[in-house]
Amino acid sequence: MRSPIIALGLAALGALIAPPAAAQALPSLPEPSVGAAPLGPAKPLVAWVAFCEAYAAECAVDPSEPARIALTAQVWASVVSVNRRVNRSIRAVTDMEHLGVADRWDLAEDGSGDCEDFQLLKRHLLAKAGLPRRAMRMTVVIDEKGEGHAVLTLLTDRGDLVLDNKTSAVLPWHQTGYTFIKRESQDAIAWVSLGGLSSPATTANR
Question: Fewer C-beta neighbours within 10 Å, C or N terminus of the chain?
Answer without folding.
Answer: N
